[in-house]
Specification:
This protein is of the alpha+beta class. It folds into two domains: about 90 residues, Metal Binding Protein, Guanine Nucleotide Exchange Factor, Chain A; about 110 residues, no CATH class. Helices cover about 20% and strands about 25% of the residues. A three-stranded antiparallel beta sheet has the order 5-6-7, covered by helices on one side. It starts with a strand and ends in a 24-residue tail after the last helix.
Length: about 220
C-alpha cells in the first residue's frame, strides 16, 4: 500500500501513514504572527496528518525523545525535532471563543466559534443540511472577499473581507452574555431602540446604517 512520509531535515524523525484514497489532501496556508515567527517564513503551510496522531504524541513524550514540544498559543502545540528544529506536527486544542470588538472598545461581543463548529459537525453527522457559509470539512465559517462599490467606499480599501455567523453563536462579552438577539431583524430593532431605558447598554456604541434596503 502506498504510504505518505513526514521527515525532518536531519532524518532523525520519520513518520509514515497510509496514503488516503481521496487526493489531494486538504491543506491550509497561514500568515498569522505566530506561524511567521515559529517558522521564520512569510507564511506556514500544512495538511492534517492522515496517520495516527497519538503515536506521534507518544513519541514526543517518550524518555530521551528528540521530538520536542512548544506551546505556540493557548490552543496550539507544535512538535518539532530537537536536533534540526523542523516542525513536524501541530496539535490543536478545542476551539474556543473569538472576541468581536472595535478598536476603541465601544463594541465588545464574543463569537462562540468552537460551539458553532461542534454544532455543525453534529448536524452533518445526522444528515442535516449545513448553512451555506459553513465549510463541510472544517465546519468553520467561510470568508468572503468583496470589491463592490459600497464596501470599498465605506472601508477606504480596494478589497473588503467578511465572514458569517448565526446570531445564536454571538453573545455579549463579560459574565452575563445572555440576551443577544437571535435574528437580524431583532438585532436591528435592538440597536435602534431609543435611549429612554429601552436600549441594552451592552450594545455599547454599535450603530446601524442601511446602505441598501436589505444590507
Amino acid at each position: 500500500m502506498p504510504t505518505l512520509q513526514a521527515q525532518c531535515l536531519c532524518t532523525a524523525r520519520t513518520f509514515t501513514a497510509p496514503l488516503p484514497a481521496q487526493l489531494p489532501l486538504p491543506a491550509a496556508s497561514c500568515h498569522c504572527t505566530s506561524c511567521r515567527r515559529v517558522t521564520g517564513a512569510l507564511r506556514a503551510s500544512g495538511t492534517p496528518w492522515p496517520g495516527d496522531g497519538a503515536a506521534i504524541a507518544a513519541a514526543a513524550a517518550a524518555p530521551h525523545s528528540t521530538l520536542r514540544r512548544y506551546r505556540r498559543s493557548g490552543r496550539v502545540t507544535v512538535l518539532f525535532c530537537g536536533e534540526c528544529g523542523v516542525g513536524l506536527k501541530g496539535a490543536e486544542g478545542p476551539a474556543g471563543e473569538v472576541p468581536v470588538r472595535c478598536h476603541c472598545g465601544g463594541v465588545d461581543f464574543v463569537l462562540r466559534a468552537g460551539e458553532a463548529q461542534r454544532e455543525y459537525a453534529e448536524w452533518q453527522r445526522r444528515g442535516r443540511e449545513l448553512p451555506w457559509f459553513v465549510d463541510p470539512v472544517t465546519h468553520k465559517a467561510l470568508g468572503l472577499v468583496d470589491s463592490c462599490d459600497t464596501c470599498r467606499v465605506w472601508s477606504g480599501a480596494e478589497l473588503f473581507h467578511w465572514t458569517f455567523s448565526a446570531l445564536r453563536h454571538v453573545s455579549f462579552a463579560g459574565g452575563d452574555g445572555g440576551g443577544f438577539p437571535q435574528s437580524a431583524v431583532d438585532l436591528g430593532a435592538a440597536v435602534e431602540a431609543g435611549d429612554g431605558g429601552t436600549r441594552d447598554p451592552r450594545f455599547g456604541t454599535l450603530a446601524l446604517y442601511a446602505s441598501l434596503p436589505d444590507v
